[in-house]
């Protein structure tokens, strides 16, 4: 009886592990697949309180002008209203001033980090806080311990090309 | 470093193995954080992330993290399997096989990363899984042959033990206990080596990128080669000793025979 137990326990354990993995894997969609398509910028929010212009108005999350310029420097993406992620890891961005740009995108980690590669070789990293069929939330300036200082919210857009 | 088991291991054996393997663990972990944005020796964090992804309903990510944890578990499992089942084929073989597998994985990842890696999510998931398996192999081996005295990727437990030890050292009887002092030395060395490995790996990555895995693999070779060379030297010196004793006995026998022959001639004319 003991031998039977020891012989069966390992295959049973392995079977349970495989079944658990398959149950999770088959029910989920890869973040790479979820990200494909066009996203429209909905809002920007700023998380760091010490960046607020008027500290007495704690409900307002307005970044001081100097700091905002520093954030905006070399960052075309913050002017882009629409982001289109394509299958071939190309990101096409169109701004509200009809300026457009093309970058290369990759997902890192378990699909929780979005890497954008500019044509000049510079890289940007965003923490993907939320990614559903309709909503994308990015934290800008990845930090392993705390959330980034800018929270960017997008909604999926089906009719923009 | 590798051949001895449990109570036959000296303090120096543990220091050598713990120091070098912690260095490897630290270097691999930092390299994987930089390249893949995922830890390969922080399984505690992976459990927390697994819980988070399940709570959020991100089933795919949960599956990936579950697979990563299972990879680390498997590494430990196969490592100890080798130690306990292959002992009859030679202790060095049984203990070095997990390290050899780890070496092959690091070399493969370095080679693949330099020549083929294109940065896709699937590649990242597989490579992190392989690194976790490799770290599991290392951690399982060192823990197994040192009677759980050395765990080179388990910083949480190490820090816990250090905290406890240092609080015990406030009492003289524990301070004067050789075993506790040796344990503290070992843990401090492991922590320092881990940090040093991580710092060097981070600096080297800036220049060599995936080549940093070859750097880590080099230290695994040191661990494997150390015992192998020692065994060869001991074997050669034992063979020389045996040959010397054999020759000496042979000479003694031939002298004895000559003596008997002389006696016989004298006796029988």
Largest interface: A-B, 24 and 24 residues
Distance between the termini of chain B: 65 Å
Biggest sheet character of chain A? 8 strands, antiparallel, barrel
Integer average pLDDT of chain B: 90
Spans where pLDDT lies below 50 across 5 or more residues of chain A: 49-60, 142-148
Radius of gyration of chain A: 21 Å
Proportion of β residues of chain A?
35-45%
Binned strand content of chain B:
under 5%
What is the assembly state of the chains in this entry? heterodimer
Outline of chain B, from the CA principal axes?
A: elongated
How is this structure best described in words?
The complex is a heterodimer of chains A (161) and B (269). Chain A has 161 residues and is α+β, with helices and mostly antiparallel strands. Chain A has three helices and eight strands. In chain A, strands 1-2-3-4-5-6-7-8 form an eight-stranded antiparallel beta barrel. Chain A is elongated. Chain A starts with a helix and ends with a strand. The model of chain A is unreliable at 49-60 and 142-148 (pLDDT under 50). With 269 residues, chain B is mainly alpha-helical. Helices cover 83% and strands 0% of the residues of chain B. In chain B, helix 4 (91-115) packs antiparallel against helix 5 (121-145). The longest helix of chain B is centred in the C-terminal third of the chain and has 57 residues, at 212-268. Chain B is elongated and about 105 Å long. Classes of the chains: A alpha+beta (161), B mainly alpha (269).
List the helices and strands and how they pair.
The complex is a heterodimer of chains A (161) and B (269).
Chain A: H1 2-27, H2 31-35, E1 37-46, H3 65-72, E2 80-85, E3 90-95, E4 100-108, E5 113-117, E6 123-131, E7 135-140, E8 150-157
Antiparallel strand pairs in A: 1-2, 1-8, 2-3, 3-4, 4-5, 5-6, 6-7, 7-8
Chain B: H1 11-36, H2 43-56, H3 59-85, H4 91-115, H5 121-145, H6 155-168, H7 172-175, H8 178-208, H9 212-268
Helix pairs in contact in B: 1-5, 1-8, 1-9, 2-3, 3-4, 3-5, 4-5, 4-9, 6-8
